[in-house]
């Protein structure tokens, strides 16, 4: 029996509220000028980059507190969206107005950080990020961040019935439909870009946008959103490997990996989208994907593993973001797969017994020496754990 209650959540909240949701981040050192340079060299000359990236990896893995010398804490839209949804879970469970009040307070701040210049509200990272596609400057909106904000405002509407939250969500769908790039594959399927400034074939980006547009169709009745959303999910299905897996992105050797969190991202968006479409081919893709997940990304103790296939050296033994997404995905899968409940309960039991820190936050990562990294990064994974665990409490209540 899992000993788990709202007090654990309140301990976490006392910390994040005290910090006003500001936090350090796993990408801190990589977003410095030196970190950006090191990554740029890495993507063009991997061998030459070794002397540049090694000190950052070493510091980040074994001396993470060093980031305090180089960066300041920030607020992260994706974290705030998860906190909003988690607070609303607690309000629905307890009817305690303090949870609703805090959700509304965060949503007011979140709306103010929407990035201007696009067809609707949208959000990204508050830092520069160098990747294999190039440099994404801070405040570039992403289709992997914006859907969480979309869901947060929709949940605020569902709970409060206040039209203003629906009026915020509707323009978000215009951003997803009008500003994100859509390209056609040789087989005729359509895929979504990651941002308005690229044409990358990142699988989870199309899954996120497919769900967002289909939920927008459901809420606002725009048929064009249904058509495009269904086209995006067709791309996701056709990109699934024969064994049920998805690599991170097509046509880029740097992205030829299969990991836990992105597998979860793809699956949970397929599940939520298919609540609307109810198509057997999507249901089959979900079944095959979750079976792969259980076989290759869950260990013999029914706990998440970070990678099934990787092309990078990894000095992190355990990432609690995998745990958070494993819970969220498992809750969605409980009526589809009998093993999902066992996985969810094993993950939560492990968190409760091993990964709650003295100040009430959660361990963020464990390095390959077994040393816990207890810096409470809200973007990765404190907010996701908060949302996942409150969703579990609500479900079993």
Describe this structure in words.
The chain has 397 residues and is mainly α. It has 2 domains: 6-28 and 71-396, Alpha/alpha barrel (Glycosyltransferase), CATH 1.50.10; 29-70, no CATH class. Helices cover 57% and strands 7% of the residues. The protein contains 14 helices and 9 strands. It has helices at residues 6-18, 33-44, 46-62, 77-94, 97-112, 146-160, 163-178, 203-220, 223-238, 260-277, 280-297, 320-333, 339-354, 378-396, and strands at residues 129-131, 134-136, 182-184, 190-192, 258-259, 307-309, 316-319, 365-367, 372-373. Helix 4 packs parallel to helix 14.
Report a brief summary of the structure.
The chain has 397 residues and is mainly α. It has helices at residues 6-18, 33-44, 46-62, 77-94, 97-112, 146-160, 163-178, 203-220, 223-238, 260-277, 280-297, 320-333, 339-354, 378-396, and strands at 129-131, 134-136, 182-184, 190-192, 258-259, 307-309, 316-319, 365-367, 372-373.
**Count of helices?**
14
Tell me the fraction of residues in β-strands, as a range: 5-15%
What is the correct CATH architecture of the largest domain?
A: Alpha/alpha barrel
The percent of residues in helical segments reads 55-70%
CATH level 1 class label of the largest domain: Mainly Alpha
The third-level CATH topology of the largest domain is Glycosyltransferase
Provide the spatial order of strands within the biggest beta sheet. 7-8-9
The major pleated sheet works out as: 3 strands, antiparallel
Shape: globular
- Distance between the first and last residues' Cα: 14 Å
What's the Cα radius of gyration?
20 Å
Q: Could you report the average pLDDT, rounded to the nearest whole number?
A: 96
